Prior knowledge:
By secondary structure, chain A is mainly alpha-helical. The first copy, chain A, has 10 helices and no strands. Helices cover about 75% and strands about 0% of the residues of chain A.
Amino acid sequence: xxxxxxxxxxxxxxxxxxxxxxxxxxxxxxxxxxxxxxxxxxxxxxxxxxxxxxxxxxxxxxxxxxxxxxxxxxxxxxxxxxxxxxxxxxxxxxxxxxxxxxxxxxxxxxxxxxxxxxxxxxxxxxxxxxxxxxxxxxxxxxxxxxxxxxxxxxxxxxxxxxxxxxxxxxxxxxxxxxxxxxxxxxxxxxxxxxxxxxxxxxxxx
Amino acid sequence: xxxxxxxxxxxxxxxxxxxxxxxxxxxxxxxxxxxxxxxxxxxxxxxxxxxxxxxxxxxxxxxxxxxxxxxxxxxxxxxxxxxxxxxxxxxxxxxxxxxxxxxxxxxxxxxxxxxxxxxxxxxxxxxxxxxxxxxxxxxxxxxxxxxxxxxxxxxxxxxxxxxxxxxxxxxxxxxxxxxxxxxxxxxxxxxxxxxxxxxxxxxxx
DNA sequence: ATGCTCAGTGAGCGGATGCTCAATATCCTG
DNA sequence: CAGGATATTGAGCATCCGCTCACTGAGCAT
Lengths: 205, 205
């Protein structure tokens, strides 16, 4: 065993990071407090800074960790998805896994460091790309109307983020994606569809 | 003149409030700093607290002031509006007048005091009500499809707030409503319309 | 065993910020 | 004009929070 010492150090670092992740899920990345992380980890305040030279460094690593997790999950979900509804479902499923962190990123990303912003926009780009591709195919088949890519994407993302951010309004204390995700997908597809009336409500007036 | 003294005091109060308004337009209501307000007003730090006993009080009054201004403007704009497009245009025009403050409210309202939240939701309710009424009329005339009220409203508000909040993405350094407002209205009406293709792009495909 | 290395400690510094209060400047009344 | 009322001052307090550093003690090499 060449590494009793190094192992323990690495474990401490990981415990600090875990505590940071938990705290960011609750209070957001902007609200992360180094003293609170230390307390939750069960180490001294100073120990945090021997692993992460700066609060910003800790936030960066924390965001990078969740960012990669979200990104990986998203790509895994999107891999088998081809249809428009599949893409939207995959998108929400990927977010659902990290709903708290994703929600905070959606709220706080403009106030986070540049590299975090780039990572966030990268995730959004991936969604936009797949959404566009699926929409093109659906439109070629005449299933949906013609909508410019940026409006297509922004309408969807605005809706999803609006419900996520204001989840206290839409699903107090619960997962807004579980409660409203299906409704959002149906609604969005309905708006895009060429059909003039709602398919899900056949007995409409 | 029974009130040289009282007048001056009232004027100071107003100047403090004006400085607070200006600062909130820049940094948001959460970012308001009493010392900075004092500096901008040209008055000592302590003077702020002889007019507003607490920072929170100052924020409350500031929000109440812009809230009433926005509300008044909104009702004035909505008064003559009957058609759906008119309602949307009136909505954006009312916001445009107070774009900075409205934007910060859209971002920060969940973190603001309860009475502020109630005022904000009241404004949103007014928009929702008019939007719903106009949509009902348009639907009766067969101009738009059937969409549940809450989804109709939330889609519109999500879209508008998304563009406002991320204006750096959509209209860096300029008014996002000036730059993109018309596009948003056209797009939203298009999504609602019974027409299967875009009216504004007759040579589609 | 001895001495070195280094993860971890915790008191405390420095700056930001909301807020207080005794002192002062200014105005009003009699 | 004298004396009181009060608007305003500004030094300073309390708290929070990121961060430092001299020190401790457990582990590791020789």
